[in-house]
Design brief:
CATH class: Alpha Beta
CATH topology: Rossmann fold
Strand order of the largest sheet: 3-2-1-4-5-6-7
Radius of gyration: 17 Å
């Protein structure tokens, strides 16, 4: 048994980010062709495209503002013209900002999180799900966070956006399930990335002490779960919020 995405096309938003690039590579290694979305880092997107082509898979880059329905529609039109249908959508893009307390957090940061968490999810659904319904197949995968279960100080804007995203994904799962479209979320913990390896910041004893597995997870471990949910091995899983956090957060029944 293996994860086989041969014949599938996957879109990863925010593909040039620390997690996005590993997800894209992993989906390609499983046999998928890739649509690599970026907002501003065209050079990294082009570099990633060549990496994926070197793996023997097709890849294209596309620029879009996921906070704009018009921009996402334009992205889909270009993908349809050049690649055809998208089978797997991974919503990974999110605005970056400086975290601080609610009293000090600029209100603009709450709007940016709403736009790139909630509205990105809505825009991607409105744009890509209708074609999935027509084909009776699709995978919608949102990248959430363990933070929505922690509610620690300074997390408010991020948690607000991701909790809103959670509601969209759970309801979408119920609305499109009859068409054999699965809708799930992966919730990373504080993950070791390429940047951590470069800066030698992989270890954080304070955080690790709270994790049952006593370590931080890796970007590859997050990407593995995304690939699983994208595959037919996960064909009867939908509406799930799956922490990949070494047990640091545990949804209760």
């Amino acid at each position: 048994m293996k994860i086989d995405l041969s014949g599938r096309t996957a879109l990863v938003t925010g593909s040039t980010g620390q997690l996005g690039r590993v997800m894209a590579r992993t989906l390609a290694q499983c046999g998928a062709d890739l649509v690599l979305h970026y907002r501003g880092n065209e050079a990294k997107a082009n570099e990633l495209r060549e990496e994926i082509r070197a793996l023997g898979r097709e890849a294209m880059t596309v620029q879009a503002d996921v906070a704009s329905l018009e921009s996402v529609h334009a992205m889909q039109a270009r993908v349809a013209a050049e690649r055809g249908s998208v089978d797997i959508v991974v919503a990974n893009a999110v605005a970056q900002y400086q975290w601080t307390t609610i009293l000090e957090q600029p209100t603009a940061d709450y709007f940016s999180q709403f736009e790139t968490c909630v509205m990105q999810s809505v825009h991607l659904a409105k744009t890509f799900v209708p074609d999935m319904i027509g084909r009776g197949y699709g995978r919608m995968i949102g990248i959430n966070t363990e933070c929505v279960m922690q509610n620690f100080p300074t997390q408010s804007a991020y948690v607000a956006g991701k909790r809103g995203m959670d509601g969209i994904y759970r309801i979408l799962a119920k609305e499109v399930g009859e068409h054999q479209i699965t809708v799930n979320q992966v919730a990373p913990g504080w993950t070791i990335s390429e940047q951590d390896r470069t800066n030698r910041t992989e270890r954080n004893e304070g955080y690790e002490s709270s994790v049952p597995l006593k370590r931080r997870g890796t970007d590859q471990e997050i990407a593995n779960v995304v690939a699983f949910l994208a595959s037919d091995l996960a064909s009867f899983i939908t509406g799930a919020y799956i922490p990949v956090s070494g047990g640091n957060v545990m949804p209760a029944i």
